[in-house]
């Protein structure tokens, strides 16, 4: 039985994923545009600063890793007081997947994951906008090992047999390790985010149970009892951490399962509705339409086209996926 985190990521339809190495030297500041995808970046050599809208500049040191969900516009710089240039207009593209500006005093690895629209809306809405895993955190040791392997694939191993596949798998591992490290960080009890909810002893217990038995009938009171909390206290904490009310979350996750399973032409909608805990095909269809804006049957008819779209990358190169969109 998969844990909730593994279950969700196993169903994500990734439209494109890529990694690239970033090198910069001298005095520099580069602005990267907002993009609705999941990003990770790590500092291999030197140091830099990141500035996000509405936030004070944050210093990044060697070994630091950061993740961004629904990535906002951000600036990476050698110092926080340098005027920024648009990255897409000044970076040199070096083969195979290297972005270069001025020198090699600072070296970073970046990666980007672009999900099918409905997946992105569900997942990115539950993740924190910015996560910093400092090099001093114990879990960062595993990240450093993966980053070393990934850097080797992006430099000395490029063109070797299976290099693209290894790079993609290492990027997947790095993403999961980053999420795991974030979940282990000690933060305030009101810190929002689905990863934090999984790490919470009470809410995490409930989430694990829901994902193991999605077809069961649940009430907020039953879930609160499972968590060992009052009904009102549980409902408030669940929403604060997860971003959804308890029953709303169950409905949305059921619809993610349904959306994936509708690709199977041998599965009837009535059977799927029953397996997901709906008393009738009509009740299931209404819930599905509320989430996706179309009926299950209409989605089923278009599933082949959607599967095809999932395989197409909207970007022209791996470096553009990893750091900025195609021009």
UniProtKB/TrEMBL annotation:
<dbReference type="InterPro" id="IPR009057">
    <property type="entry name" value="Homeodomain-like_sf"/>
</dbReference>
<protein>
    <submittedName>
        <fullName>AraC family transcriptional regulator</fullName>
    </submittedName>
</protein>
<feature type="domain" description="HTH araC/xylS-type">
    <location>
        <begin position="204"/>
        <end position="302"/>
    </location>
</feature>
<dbReference type="InterPro" id="IPR032783">
    <property type="entry name" value="AraC_lig"/>
</dbReference>
<dbReference type="Pfam" id="PF12833">
    <property type="entry name" value="HTH_18"/>
</dbReference>
<keyword id="KW-0238">DNA-binding</keyword>
<dbReference type="InterPro" id="IPR018060">
    <property type="entry name" value="HTH_AraC"/>
</dbReference>
<dbReference type="GO" id="GO:0003700">
    <property type="term" value="F:DNA-binding transcription factor activity"/>
</dbReference>
<dbReference type="Pfam" id="PF12852">
    <property type="entry name" value="Cupin_6"/>
</dbReference>
<keyword id="KW-0805">Transcription regulation</keyword>
<dbReference type="InterPro" id="IPR020449">
    <property type="entry name" value="Tscrpt_reg_AraC-type_HTH"/>
</dbReference>
<dbReference type="InterPro" id="IPR018062">
    <property type="entry name" value="HTH_AraC-typ_CS"/>
</dbReference>
<dbReference type="GO" id="GO:0043565">
    <property type="term" value="F:sequence-specific DNA binding"/>
</dbReference>
<keyword id="KW-0804">Transcription</keyword>
<dbReference type="InterPro" id="IPR050204">
    <property type="entry name" value="AraC_XylS_family_regulators"/>
</dbReference>
């Amino acid at each position: 039985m998969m844990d909730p985190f593994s279950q969700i990521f196993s169903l994500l339809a990734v439209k494109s994923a890529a990694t690239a190495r970033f090198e910069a030297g001298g005095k520099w500041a580069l602005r990267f545009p907002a993009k609705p995808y999941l990003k990770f970046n790590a500092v291999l050599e030197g140091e830099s600063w990141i500035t996000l809208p509405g936030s004070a500049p944050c210093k990044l040191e060697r070994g630091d890793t950061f993740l961004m969900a629904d990535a906002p516009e951000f600036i990476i710089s050698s110092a926080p007081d340098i005027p920024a240039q648009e990255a897409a207009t000044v970076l040199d593209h070096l083969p195979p997947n290297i972005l270069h500006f001025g020198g090699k005093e600072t070296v970073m690895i970046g990666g980007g994951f672009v999900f099918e629209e409905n997946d992105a809306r569900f997942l990115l809405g539950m993740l924190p906008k910015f996560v910093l895993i400092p090099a001093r955190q114990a879990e960062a040791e595993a990240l450093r090992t993966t980053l070393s392997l990934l850097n080797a694939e992006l430099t000395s191993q490029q063109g070797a047999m299976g290099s693209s596949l290894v790079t993609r798998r290492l990027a997947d591992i790095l993403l999961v390790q980053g999420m795991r490290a974030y979940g282990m960080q000690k933060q305030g009890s009101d810190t929002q985010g689905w990863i934090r909810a999984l790490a919470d002893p009470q809410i995490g217990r409930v989430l694990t149970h829901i994902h193991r038995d999605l077809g069961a009938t649940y009430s907020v009171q039953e879930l609160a009892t499972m968590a060992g909390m009052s009904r009102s206290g549980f409902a408030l904490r669940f929403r604060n951490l997860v971003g959804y009310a308890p029953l709303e979350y169950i409905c949305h996750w059921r619809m993610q399962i349904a959306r994936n399973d509708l690709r199977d032409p041998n599965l009837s909608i009535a059977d799927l509705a029953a397996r997901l805990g709906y008393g009738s095909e009509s009740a299931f269809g209404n819930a599905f339409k509320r989430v996706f804006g179309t009926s299950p049957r209409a989605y089923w008819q278009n599933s082949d086209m959607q599967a095809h779209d999932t395989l197409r990358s909207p970007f022209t190169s791996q470096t553009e996926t990893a750091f900025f969109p195609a021009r």
